[in-house]
Automatic annotation (TrEMBL):
UniProt-listed InterPro entries: Gfo/Idh/MocA-like_OxRdtase_N (IPR000683), GFO_IDH_MocA-like_dom (IPR055170), NAD(P)-bd_dom_sf (IPR036291)
Cytoplasm keyword on record: no
Domain Gfo/Idh/MocA-like oxidoreductase N-terminal positions: 4-123
UniProt-recorded name of the protein: Gfo/Idh/MocA family oxidoreductase
Keywords attached to this entry: Oxidoreductase
Length: 339
């Protein structure tokens, strides 16, 4: 079996995770990387014996050996990088969000739909065993009709200072687009419905300097879907215990809670602090297997000449809802969404 040759664009924390997963996937070759930092390129190239490295994305995709790219560049570049890869005849895996501007996303969706190339969007929770198990229960009708969903995504407070420094240099797009797109996607996936109204609020109790940067350390949103499901979101950067991702689904026949406590493993510690359950400290730890599974699915789709279940339209809807939440927060008003 000839290996599928992939280039990874962007070598930040998540880019390095994808590079490692690609390297360890059977019948796949990590052929090239592109990143602005030459030193990082050199270190990664040597670690994985990568044939090519570039400081330019455009230069990397000109490499005729490549079959596909994994895009983990800053969000504002995603639609442009997707378009250029497709124009070069490359299959595309792109991290969330698909983009920041809805008109740009719609244009690139048209190219994706007109192409026979595989496009895969990095909503990794769809490949997490716990979320897949819950989705299967919902689809079998085991909790009846969904009425309410509550979803938390809160980063550890240990990273708050570094985020403040990052926000001073470059806007994140807002906490809803930066973080809540995963929760929004899960809500759409579980309910198979669209969001029609949002109301969002937020504050900066731990980092008031974010007020001047139009950022929030913790934001909330209430969503009403077109099937009358109500969803509540919390996105934050102040979890003192670690990395907290939790989803609760309430139905007419039962209720599901996914990671009600963000357990690191099945160990319980008994010491001077009482009974303690160690918790996940970051997203690479919590969703390690999900990141592996989604890359495997991307490769399988290329081999089988099919498209994954997660689509570019899912990416567009996530961006639209997140942008509506940000608008609601900034204007302090209820926002209705039209598609």
């Amino acid at each position: 079996m000839n290996p599928i040759k992939i280039g990874v664009a962007g070598l930040g924390r998540l880019g390095l995770i994808h590079a490692d997963n690609i390297y360890h996937t059977k019948h796949v070759e990590l052929t090239a990387v592109s990143n602005l930092d030459k030193q990082v390129n050199k270190e990664v190239q040597e670690k994985y014996s990568i044939p090519y490295s570039y400081t330019s994305y455009e230069a990397m995709i000109e490499n005729d050996e490549l079959d596909a790219v994994c895009i983990v560049t800053p969000s504002g570049f995603h639609t442009d990088h997707i378009q250029k890869a497709l124009d070069r005849g490359l299959h595309v895996f792109c991290e969330k969000p698909i983009g920041l501007n809805t008109e740009d996303i719609k244009k690139v969706i048209q190219t994706i739909e007109e192409s026979d190339l595989v496009f895969h969007l990095g909503f990794m929770r769809r490949y997490d065993e716990d979320y897949v198990f819950a989705k299967q229960m919902i689809d079998r009708g085991e909790i009846g009709d969904i009425s309410i969903i509550r979803s938390y995504g809160i980063d550890p407070i240990a990273g708050l200072d570094s985020f403040v420094e990052f926000a001073k240099q470059s806007p994140s797009g807002g906490i809803y687009l930066d973080m809540s797109v995963h929760d929004i996607d899960v809500i759409r996936w579980f309910t198979e419905a669209e969001v029609k109204k949002v109301w969002a609020t937020g504050n900066n109790k731990a980092a008031p300097e974010l007020n001047a940067l139009n950022e929030v350390e913790i934001g909330t949103a209430t969503l009403q879907l077109d099937n009358d499901v109500t969803a509540f979101l919390v996105a934050g950067r102040t979890a003192s215990h670690g990395y907290h991702v939790e989803t609760e689904v309430i139905g007419t026949k039962g209720m599901i809670r996914i990671a009600a406590t963000p357990d690191k493993n099945k160990v319980t510690v008994f010491n001077e602090h009482g009974t303690v359950r160690p918790t996940s400290q970051n997203f690479p730890e919590r969703f390690k297997e999900a990141y592996i599974n989604e890359i495997k699915e991307f490769i399988d789709c290329i081999r089988d000449e099919r498209q994954p279940s997660v689509t570019a339209l899912d990416g567009l809807r996530g961006t639209e809802v997140a942008a509506a939440c940000q608008h609601s927060f900034e204007k302090d008003e209820l926002v209705e969404i039209t598609y």
